Amino acid sequence: MKYKLNHEISFWYNLVSKIIFIGSLGFLLYSAFVETLALLLCIVFSFSSFILMQMFKKYKTIEFDEKSIYFDDTKVDLKDVEEIGLGKITFKINLEKDPINFFYSPLSNNFNLLKTFHKEQV
After folding, report:
1. CA 76 to CA 111: how far, in whole Å?
2. Is the pLDDT of residue 14 over 80?
3. Could you state, in order of their start, the residue ranges of all structural domains in the chain?
4. pLDDT at 107
5. What angle do CA 102, 104, 110 make, to 5 degrees?
6. Transmembrane ranges (predicted)?
7. 17, 70, 75, 89: which could form a disulfide with 100 (CB 3.0–4.6 Å)?
């Protein structure tokens, strides 16, 4: 049975960050005509929203079972996983240059289940 590591709430975080970014761009256009202080504050807010959106793009959807982890049509054995931390999975073999990032939500209990499966395999 495959378990999903990412919680569905990550979709909502991503959606809300996009809505906030689009709204901040609209407010930026409005404040360009009204007041310069509002323009500066809106530029800072738009930039921080953009950074938040870029952060969500690097997350991958990860599924796992008792022996393997699946991401982007790739299967990796849990024996090849070096470390499972909050938001990152590091591999022993050099599949990826960087660790795999995932969205961690404390609402999901699957993270502890993945760590349990990893301890059993190692």
Report:
1. 17
2. no
3. 3-57, 63-121
4. 66
5. 100
6. 12-30, 36-56
7. 89
Model pLDDT for residues 16-47, shown as the tens digit of each residue:
777 887 887 777 777 777 777 777 777 777 78
pLDDT band at 58; cut points 50, 70, 90: low
Query: What's the pLDDT score for residue 13?
Result: 73
Do 91 and 76 meet the contact criterion of CB atoms below 8 Å apart? Answer: yes
Q: Which of 114, 61, 121 is nearest to 84 (CA)?
A: 114
- For residue 64, count other CB atoms closer than 10 A to its CB: 23
